[in-house]
């Protein structure tokens, strides 16, 4: 990330007047017009003490009412309140409100799960111009910040560091990023252990969905349906198992996880204890991907193909960004021959395609540390379906954008289906030397980006049901506000 001079950063250019943020607040004087107004969301529990320290610094330097602790208030509630107030001010002829809404940028500080939560909320709001989002790395992996040039190490929390960051936000460029919808369907089994996933086990962006359309073949009593979305990756298998062990340990002993270096060291140790480095000895073959599920991909409209998965593959990753496990790039850069023979493309973040990569074990993963190292490239697709074999195993582990859970599987004759499809896009803020690449910068590269526009959803979900993360259910516009101005 380019180094800026903190002395040249004028905080007035980022501050938002209180009356914009709080309905019916007094306008005490004519406020200065900010060039780069920001709303800041901070997970005060992320990064050990760093999240809380960062919250204090941002509130000191900016208007404290434009800086929010996600532990106290959800982002959908905050944005609902602010956008409703902005709309009312615009209707009354407030020109400053118009300019602030046009220039507004969001900052989110936390782990990848926290960042994904905010991205999901912004996606749900369906604004005419979604505010672009900058991410501050406060987690263990920090794949989202790293992908867009904001680094992967926990930042400084002093005045100077925050000013430098604000200066970079002002200079940052906007990039589109694909979002992906995931649906998981399972019937209540006739026998065996397969309770619904506990709500606290689920990532922010994956949620129980009780309203099913009549066309849904699983729209019967006793069906568990979960819907959500992700931005970086969905993974299943051994890597998610290690991540689940790490998160479980952190929940039990949060006092031991206040340092990023210690967190990463603990993660590596758990990789050993979970058998990731000795998978052939500790990991039963029944949990290998090929034995666990049938994987189908759709490269083009209406054409499902079964994907061949080698018997040794223990983890499968569906990747949208060029960063996994703290900055590694599992897809790599295919050479021209492989691109031609296998119809592969570079991994753009806005081309409507996911890169699907497989790993045998942690030793296989170590190839990513070498120049041009990559996992087993399985396919690129804009739709993916996992159909789990009946009775193959009683559970597996899954992970969305750094947030893992233990997924029970039925042991009777009812199948679990997980399907991933392209959802839409949101705007990100990126430094000019970031590693993520846009298809708009490579116009000559062939792409299936437009295939999604022709794609029909087999299960005939309504627009509201299918194309929603579900994170912003509380976003409702009061009747007195002109809704046409918000969409």
Describe the main β-sheet briefly: 7 strands, antiparallel
Strand fraction band? Answer: 15-25%
Q: Indicate the overall shape.
A: elongated
Mean pLDDT: 76
**Order of neighbouring strands in the sheet with most strands:** 6-7-5-17-14-9-10
Backbone CA Rg: 23 Å
Structural overview:
The structure is a single chain. The chain is an alpha+beta fold and 487 residues long. It folds into two domains: 11-171, Rossmann fold (3-Layer(aba) Sandwich), CATH 3.40.50; 179-425, no CATH class. It contains 15 helices and 17 strands. The protein has helices spanning 18-21, 50-61, 75-91, 95-103, 112-125, 143-147, 159-171, 238-252, 260-273, 279-282, 289-292, 336-342, 362-365, 451-454, 463-466, and strands at 38-42, 67-69, 105-110, 133-137, 173-187, 206-208, 223-230, 233-237, 293-300, 303-306, 315-319, 354-359, 376-381, 383-388, 395-400, 403-408, 417-430. The strands form three sheets. A seven-stranded antiparallel sheet has the order 6-7-5-17-14-9-10. Helix 3 packs antiparallel against helix 4 (95-103) and helix 8 crosses helix 9. The model is unreliable at 191-195, 363-370, 444-467 and 472-487 (pLDDT under 50).
């Amino acid at each position: 990330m380019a180094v800026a001079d903190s002395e040249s950063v004028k905080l007035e250019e980022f501050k938002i007047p209180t009356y914009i943020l709080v309905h019916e607040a007094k306008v005490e004087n004519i406020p200065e017009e900010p060039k780069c107004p920001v709303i800041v969301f901070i997970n005060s529990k992320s990064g050990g003490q760093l999240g809380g320290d960062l919250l204090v610094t941002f509130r000191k330097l900016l208007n404290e009412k434009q800086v929010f602790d996600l532990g106290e208030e959800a982002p959908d509630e905050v944005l609902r309140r602010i956008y409703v107030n902005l709309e009312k001010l615009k209707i009354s002829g407030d020109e400053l409100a118009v300019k602030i809404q046009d220039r507004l940028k969001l900052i989110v500080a936390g782990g990848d799960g926290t960042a994904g939560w905010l991205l999901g909320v912004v996606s749900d709001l369906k604004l005419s111009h979604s505010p672009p989002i900058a991410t501050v790395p406060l987690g263990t992996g920090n794949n989202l910040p790293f992908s867009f040039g904001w680094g992967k190490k926990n930042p400084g929390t002093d005045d100077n560091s925050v000013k430098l960051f604000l200066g970079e936000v002002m200079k940052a460029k906007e990039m589109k990023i694909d979002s992906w919808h995931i649906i998981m369907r399972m019937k209540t089994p006739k026998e065996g252990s397969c309770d619904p996933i506990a709500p606290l086990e689920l990532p922010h962006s994956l949620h129980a969905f009780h309203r099913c359309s009549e066309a849904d073949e699983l729209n019967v009593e006793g069906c568990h349906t979960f819907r959500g979305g992700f931005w970086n990756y969905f993974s299943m298998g051994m890597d998610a198992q290690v991540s689940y062990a790490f998160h479980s340990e952190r929940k039990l002993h949060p006092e031991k996880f206040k340092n990023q270096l210690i967190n990463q060291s603990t993660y590596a140790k758990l990789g050993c204890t979970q058998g990731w480095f000795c998978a052939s000895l500790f990991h039963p073959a029944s949990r290998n991907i090929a034995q666990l599920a049938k994987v189908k991909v759709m490269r083009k409209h209406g054409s499902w193909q079964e994907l061949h998965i080698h018997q040794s593959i223990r983890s499968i990753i569906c990747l949208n960004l060029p960063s996994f496990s703290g900055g590694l790039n599992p897809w790599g850069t295919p050479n021209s021959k492989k691109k031609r023979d296998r119809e592969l493309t570079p991994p753009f973040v806005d081309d409507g395609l996911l890169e699907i990569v497989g790993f045998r074990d942690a030793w296989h993963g170590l190839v990513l540390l070498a120049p041009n190292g990559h996992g087993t490239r399985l396919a690129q697709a804009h739709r993916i379906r996992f159909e789990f074999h009946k009775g193959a195993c009683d559970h597996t582990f899954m992970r969305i954008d750094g947030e893992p859970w233990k997924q029970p599987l039925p042991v009777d004759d009812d199948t679990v289906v997980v399907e991933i499809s392209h959802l839409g896009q949101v705007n990100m803020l990126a430094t000019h030397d970031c590693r993520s690449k846009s298809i708009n910068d490579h116009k000559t590269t062939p792409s299936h980006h437009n295939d999604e526009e022709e794609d029909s959803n087999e299960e005939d979900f309504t627009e509201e049901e299918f194309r929603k993360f579900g994170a912003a259910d509380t976003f409702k516009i009061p009747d007195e506000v002109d809704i046409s101005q918000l969409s």
